[in-house]
Amino acid sequence: MAPKKNPKKTDAPVLDQAEVVAETAPESTEAAAPQFKKPDLIDQVVARSSVKKRDAKPALEAALALIGEALARGDELVLPPLGKIRMIKSKDLGGGAQAMTLKLRTMKDVVKDPSKDAVESDETALATDGEDD
Fold it and tell me: Which residues touch 64 (CB under 8 Å, ≥6 apart)?
């Protein structure tokens, strides 16, 4: 087997994939939907709980992996207060990747105001006064 020759270097700028996609994407008159990425989710979990970031990150990554595996198997997920998630269809993209069409049905009693803490509500209490003694 002969050694590979180095291709000629060109003066053309090297673009990463994001730049190529941005340049070739058709212009839209609608504003792009905001993205909620994993680092944002981790920060929100830390802000809403008493968990430290170093503890929240691996727990959240494990939960996301389990959700992804369950959806790939075709399991229906019931995750209150998010709702019920099921796969409608799936397409194999090769290399282990899949494109999934999911259906999410939200729960009726989803807390609309995130500043309200449902744990302190009398309706959601697990024990009444005097039962936890």
Answer: 38
Cα separation, 102 vs 87, in Å, equals 4
| Burial of 60: CB neighbours in 10 Å, binned 0-12, 13-18, 19+ | middle
Distance CA 55, CA 69 (A): 22
pLDDT tens-digit map of 32-76? 889 999 999 999 999 999 999 999 999 999 999 999 999 999 999
Q: What is the dihedral of CA 53, 55, 61, 63, to 10 degrees?
A: -120
CB-CB neighbours of 125 under 10 Å: 12
d(CA 120, CA 111): 13
What's the rounded Cα separation, in Å, for the pair 50 and 46?
Answer: 7
Q: Report the alpha-carbon angle 48-86-46, nearest 5.
A: 10
Q: How far apart are CA 67 and CA 71, in angstroms?
A: 6
Other beta carbons within 10 angstroms of residue 56's beta carbon come to 19
